Amino acid sequence: MTYRTFLTYLDGDEASEARAAAATGLARQFDAHLTFLAIGYEPNIPPYAYGEAAGAVLAEMAAVAESEAQERSKKAGEMIDRSGIRGDVIPVTCRFGAFAQTIGDHAQFTDLTVLTQPYGETIPRSAADAFEGAMFDGDGAVLICPAGLERLDAKTVMIAWNGSREALRATRRAMPVLKQAERVELLMIEPPEYRSEPGHQMATMLSRHGVPVEVAAEPGTVDPISTTLRRRAREMGAGLIVMGGYGHSRFREYMIGGATRDIVSETDVPILMAH
Fold first, then answer.
1. Beta strand pairing call for 86-95 and 156-160
2. What is the model's pTM?
3. Who's near 175: CB < 8 A, 6+ residues apart?
4. CB 3 within 8 A of CB 176
5. Engineering a disulfide at 190: which of 72, 109, 220, 253 sits with its beta carbon 3.0 to 4.6 angstroms away?
6. CATH code of domain 156-274
7. Pairwise CA distance, residues 19 & 76, whole Å
8. Residues 224 and 197 sit within 8 Å (Cβ to Cβ)
9. pLDDT tens digits along 49-68
10. What is the spatial distance between Cα 221 and Cα 189, in angstroms, rounded to a whole number?
11. Superfamily classification of domain 5-144
């Protein structure tokens, strides 16, 4: 069991080069096929904003978006050729509001969507759309890569385990990496007292796959869960964090925060997530 297809996108934002470098490096590492989406954005502006000139103005904007997609398509193709990997490029024009669905449609047919930090004051909305589209509509795994990552050094992996469906899916989708790891920690934060051996069934399943897993627990504190996860990842020298994403609704996490938004907003460790 391994990863066969990776997906990423090129759209000209500041993180495009980092995404491309991470995706091509990972495709080389796993001997996988990489699909680039070369994006050209059409403004999300209603036709009536231009009055009688609406048709001509919108046609011009569409032509600019198409030109950008073709330019980025050529650039992505050159990256694939230089890296010596197998890959293809799909030029796509879409409106900003449709970008999440565009990513989701393509992520359905890939093993791993390679992205960069989706949230932050200087991060464009398109990065969040890509992350949420891949998570909710892709049904695969998403790898959030910190800047500079070109190879996954995942000898030590931390799984944030809370028994949820999302955490289970993320763990299953991380299996190609987990089976190559030298140490995997199944970390629970404030595990439920009514279970005498929390995490036992997951640890058993992983061990039957040959994963060198150990179970650990952390007491609950006033700190956010994301703070505890980052601290534990640093302590154990984890090269990858595996966790479920959006156990709560997007609206709730947007309004009051949550582990998903908090941890992907600032991390120096790659995070593999699934919803």
1. unpaired
2. 0.90
3. 1, 209, 211
4. yes
5. 220
6. 3.40.50.620
7. 11
8. no
9. 555 556 676 778 788 899 99
10. 9
11. HUPs (3.40.50.620)
